[in-house]
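Here is a protein:
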Amino acid sequence: MEYRFQLKALALAVGSALVLSACGGGGDKNSSIQMSGIAAEGLAIANSTITIKDKAGQTRTATTDSNGNYSVQTVGLSFPLMLQVTGSQGVWHALVTEDDAGKPININSATNSIAQLALGVTSDAALKAAFTAATFSQVSAASVANADAKLLDALELELGKRPASLRHARFQPGTASIDGDETDRLLTLVDLRPSGTGFISYNRRPERVRADSYSIQTYDGNSDDLLTAGLGKTGLGSAVAPAYANAAAPTAAELRRNAIYNNYRALVDANKPTGGYGTFYGPNVDINGGDTLGEGKIAGTEAIAYSGNADGTRQVTVMVQIPANFNTSQPCLVTATSSGSRGIYGAIGTAGEWGLKHGCAVAYTDKGSGNGMHDLARDTTNLIDGTVSTAAAAGTRAHFVANLTKAQLDAFNAAFPNRIAYKHAHSQQNPEKDWGRNTLDAVGFAFYVLNEKFGTADTSGKKPRSIRPANTVVIASSVSNGAGAALLAAEQDSLGLIDGVAVGEPQIQPKDVSGLGIKQGSATVSTFGKPLIDYFTYANLYQPCAALASAATGSPGAAFIAGYATNRCTALKAKGLLTGTTLQAQADEALQKLHAYGWSEEHDLYHASHHAFATPSIVVTYLNTLGRFSVADNVCGFSFASTVTAAGATLGNVTATNALVQAGIFASGNGVPPTGGINLIYNDASGGAKRDVLAVSPSTGLADGALDGALCARSLVTGTDAVTGSKLSGTLLAQSERVRQGIAEVQASGMLNGKPTIIVSGRSDTLIPVNHAARAYYGANRRSEGSTSKLRYYEVTNAQHFDAFIDNGLLAGYDTNLVPLHVYFNRSMDIMYAHLKNGTALPDSQVIRTTPRGGTAGSAPALTAGNIPPIAATPAAGDVISYTGGTVSIPQ
């Protein structure tokens, strides 16, 4: 934050509604005072007794409610007053003077420290004694106010901005099941203790981080390391994953190694050197773009823990990696929230690699939607290190266990044997609503680990914090869902933990796009800014048929949907959702429907592969998570399970999951079936449960890729029958209302509070179309923040969401038509870092015009610098993206 903190001057705004109001009276005794506030220590101090004592030793009591709120009449008591309450972490005090009339009176660790300084005592025991003996009676309002100001001075030194007084702040404390707001976070971010005439900020473990889950490991950068798990550039570039010594029981170290291998290769094109791996990016490429780092192994420290509820019902994994060359005199920190629904290493190849190479600590989180599998038949799950345990033995250490009683589990297994529950889909917590908070939690955890590692304890035995948000450059980053989490974190960051944001291909859902418009060239975009589950359920209907359109000829991966694409067209026509009288007319019409709903001709070739590998699974996962449905609900007839792979009549039928699947799922799974041997099942298929791509819909009698289930999903999103348009009723209506409530919980405001931000997206992104996400969010931000906005949007032609599809032998054609967006993610990070470190101006929003490699599909020539021009410091007029009068204008 070194450059930014020369410019900061905003005060912290906070919210809750607790007051102290005075009516009548005079002198130091009142005739009628209602005093109220919040007792909290991070978590609310619930259902506890607060004792209020006045200067003469008279006492009153009040009882807090489940959220720490209290209220008490203080008639007849004389100022100053002192409050005392016992929480789970200590006994806390607060001083109240006549100057506090009309303000909330909170009691927490901060007010406890303020009381110590105001009274001139140096220990908690002395403060308790002052309360007991009422020796606080002579404290003045000026002394309390001065102590409060000194505490705010210390917090300003910590944060780089001055927060509101924690004595009077209106805020929302956390509870056992619900996180508090950012003021609540401040109560547990540091441990402030009086020292001389001011305060020292000591390090403390964030309250939600579970000590019993915390572990730390140092890697030598040779046999094992932070970035490549000892595999190096060569190992990560190999098409063959490392083998386990015993596939039935891989060690935690082996699982970590393979998780890094699979997650790295899932996010970048490491398939062939001709695609840019090892030349323009990769472990061997240094921060200046040179091939100087050899195998690119990075030594350092890695700490990991759960952040969540003590009872284990809400587990969010957080991790920090600290490279050995971390510079404590110029500290930097990068967030790497997992993309998709991946586990904790889900951003290792993007934000993780960039941060480690630049000597920055990297703060990771799986954002509560990580790769968690519960085999319901075996009742087995995974632990934080990926190893397998029975659910009973795991207890609160389980990464995820479905919320079913023993009786419910037995009944479900009897009715639907061999099914799998997945964390993102079935946690019943709609984790996306907390992704911003989870990212900020990871930042807080990182500062704790850094100060534990580099701090030196003083005579108190505590470690003063020397690495703080105020002196650390902090960039919120990642790609896809992780990028959306970074943007949400920036929106929520009222404490100033984040300096800037640089993200790629964000999955972000603006709450309000009313009054906005988007134009590409001279054409007006008709549909944009839809929620993810809205445009995905629409794509899920039409993509298989659209893949047969004339404009989609030669689509990579068309063979994967050939078994149901024609039947999908036929079934849509039969239901009146298409009008064409020939297969070709129906396919062309389906593609035009997608064009009208936010996709464009840049996406025509990629609908087939996206429906084969992404669309249906994302629909089912997000339908479940948004509605907070249980695995036992089988929403729209879908479930997860392993299936028969042998040809014959039982192909695609549900079968028991091999124990080897769960043994390796921590490393091989992506969190959204189909993954790692777990497939999407349509329970309601004619003839019995079947893998969705082979399922026959009861209403059509066709193997149409489970169209009946897709129509149900679409109906739950819109609230109307997808075929007839009539309003839903009964169970379907109730389910729809839950889904739509979940959508509202995850949408973004677009208010980045003036933080410098870069979004880079590919124009050909078929998974998260720019019209629904990047362009729409850019417009929402510019409308909200106007001239104060520091958001830049870079749109890259011939680039899309899945770099790993480029040079994939099964998807020939991606290589000839597309360039890696990852190159521009790295360049955007470089630009943001230079801006925050040195004040270098951010280039204006622009279109970056790349040149595809061309050649023969499957064997495109090597990527060159000419294919991937730089982000222009001053873009040409014809490349500038602008916002004027509510319209985002994108050059053609």
